[in-house]
Amino acid sequence: MVSCRVFYFQKASTIHIATVNNNVCKKLKGDVVLHAIFVDSKYTNPWTNHDIESTLDSINLAMKWIEDQASLSNVPLSIKVTYHQNKKTIPIYRDFRKKTLRSTLFASGGVRSVDKWANTIGKMAIVPLGPDTSSNTKTKIKPKDRERLIAKLRDKYNTDNVALVYFINNYYTDEVSVALHTGNDDSPEYAIVSFKEPAVIAHEFLHLFGALDLYVTPWDTKRQMKRKLNFAQKEFPNEIMAFAHRNINSLEISPLSKYLIGWKNELDEKSRQFLVGRKIKVAKYSIQNGCMHNH
User: Fold this and answer.
1) 3-class secondary-structure state, position 37
2) Domains and CATH numbers, the chain
């Protein structure tokens, strides 16, 4: 699940998809780092060594699946999985304001509250990485603790592509997973994953690089949007952004999602009509420099 604005207009008849080639996680190509932080709280199951190890196995399986999908699309991609540790993996303790992620997120001021939670954890997660000599990420705000952590990781692993993912151990509860700030550039995007299925992990990771949900989410209130999302599920029956709780080996990344994460330079006609209708044009990737231009 992702919370973001879907479009912003560049011209009267041409739009740029807000999640595409934007913020810290721009295009899913080249050298990429997924940095995992395991978080304990009073109202979640405690992280045992077995839980952490099995979740890391799922993360690695999910990233290998994405690398294989990239290879099938002739896209160079190498994903390195790192995680918060101080000699050994130690979960960081931090409670949500409303006990659970779900109840906190959907309360008044929910995203701001979850951001505060993520920033506090980010401040603690910087400590094992040594003195903060990192350069700042290029956003429009004064660096926050989460942004400083991402900047430090970018310097440490010599890559611009750092995906920050928090893991909470609510595997057997009615919880949600979410990716935030994927459609703006004034706060670094991050994800919170509540489950350990590889497909769920891959789904949220792809959100960070621009993929959109192709199912009805709590943010979709308009009848037209629900109709479009239902259409997407019919057109893309094995799409990971529509069916995140299936076996990952039964899923694929659709042409629509490939455009959104930077694996295709332009949308095919069917995907374009689904996303924006018949009359509106969508920005196209420039092959030379990877920027977006109007066509």
Assistant:
1) strand
2) 24-251 (3.40.390)
The DSSP bridge pattern shows strands 190-193 and 178-180 to be antiparallel
Strand pairing report for 284-285 and 292-293:
antiparallel
Q: If you ran DSSP here, which 8-state letter would residue 91 be given?
A: P
CA-angle at 289, arms to 283 and 295, nearest 5°: 25
| Token pair 């919880």 in the structure block, residue | 175
Distance of CA 224 to the CA centre of its chain: 25
Q: What is the number of other CB atoms lying within 10 angstroms of the CB of residue 28? A: 26
Give the separation between CA 137 and CA 146, rounded to whole angstroms.
Answer: 10
For 165-197, write each residue's pLDDT tens digit.
Answer: 999 998 667 789 999 999 888 889 999 999 999
pTM above 0.85, yes or no: yes
Instruction: Give Rg (Cα) of the chain.
Output: 18
For residue 109, give the amino acid letter. G
Distance CA 212, CA 241 (A): 7
Burial of 31 (0-12, 13-18, 19+ CB in 10 A): middle
pLDDT at 230 over 80: no
How far apart CA 176 and CA 251 sit, in angstroms, is 20
Residue 84 near residue 35 (C-beta atoms within 8 A): yes
Q: Is 227 exposed, middle or buried (0-12, 13-18, 19+ CB in 10 A)?
A: exposed
